[in-house]
Amino acid sequence: MARFKLTDADENFLKMPQGGALISAGSSGTETWIERDRDMVVHIAIKSVAVATADGGTLQVCIDLGGETAKGQDGPLPLESQLQASQSVQVLVKAGQKLAFKAYPVAHDAEVLKTIVWAADFKSEHEAEAAARQVPDRSGQERPTSSSSGAPAANGAAPN
Questions:
Q1: What is the pTM of this model?
Q2: Which of 34, 45, 105, 132 could join 145 via S-S bond, C-beta 3.0 to 4.6 A?
């Protein structure tokens, strides 16, 4: 079997958004937990890229959380096609409680090249406005900016 490599498009797809914290990078995903010191809505995401090793190759990514599974999929696609799949959930993490989850790819007739798992906390509207006021302009002086957080407060896992 040929040895496949990541393309520039794959690397671009795998980029995390600003404010995201990398939890895992590799090919198999992770089984871990997160904890916060106060109630916080957290965005958990997985992205994976693969190459179809036979006609009909598929790539699926899964996030198992609280007895539920959120899934995203690419394929089936022809031999040597690039596959890219992602899935994310938003969940309320209660202060002082560990939230266990598992995020992983499932490939059928495909070789997984890379998988990343990341998380980002949603800021309250007050925190987002305070952070925006601290953004310096090009002259190096701080300037006020407007910002609103449209982040919904989820109570449990919900597919995006």
A1: 0.73
A2: 132
How many Cβ atoms sit within 10 Å of the Cβ of residue 99?
19
Sheet-wide strand order for 82-93: 21-26, 110-121, 40-52, 82-93
Exposure string of 30-49, with b = 16+ CB inside 10 Å and e = fewer, is beeebebeeebbbbbbbbbb
pLDDT of 62-121, one tens digit each?
A: 999 989 999 999 989 999 999 999 999 999 999 999 999 999 999 999 999 999 999 999
Other CB atoms within 10 A of residue 23 CB: 18
* Fold annotation for 8-124: Jelly Rolls (2.60.120)
Domain ranges (residues) in the chain: 8-124
Specify whether the CB–CB gap between 155 and 99 falls below 8 A. no
Residue 140 is given by DSSP the state: S
Angle made by CA atoms 27, 33, 37, in degrees to the nearest 5: 140
Question: In the chain, which residue ranges form alpha helices assigned H by DSSP?
Answer: 8-13, 125-133
